[in-house]
Amino acid sequence: MFIAKELRKKSIAEYLLYMWQVEDIIRAYGCSLPVLRRDYLSRFECDGDDRDELVDWYGNLIRMINEEGCREQGHLQINKIIVQDLADLHAQLLDSSRFPFYRAEYYKVLPFIVELRKRGASNDENEIETCLNALYGVMMLRLQKKEISPDTTHAIKEITTFIGMLSDYYLKDKNEGLEFE
Fold this sequence. Notes:
By secondary structure, the protein is mainly alpha-helical. The protein is 74% helix and 0% strand.
């Protein structure tokens, strides 16, 4: 929860990836707050009000996962909305002549997006979600200490730059507003 708050201020993309990981952690503990509290949250060093706030935050996420039917897979609506906001901003940035560096970065990444979609990305997901899923997938592979090919490493580096740029524009738009024309 404390990490999520900081990430949301710093990088919306990192925040989303973190929240997706939190969703998976909750699933790994059977969407059960008592089990999560005993086996996972007990490892965190915090006390009093912070501990209560942390337990409440996870409890609310568990409730949302259950209510939204995400016990097995999928993402919470709050996270889906952010992905859609990013996709909408992406379209605005591409349509505007004021962001040529963003457009250039997008065209560098586009072949990787096409390749990812050929390899099984859902037709329902937008390009931004495809990129985020690739980043999350590689993050999971690294956590499992699995080998990542040089081609995948290169693609992920480019996707990271692109999503980082979009994330920066998202925060700038939220904090100051962007002028599209």
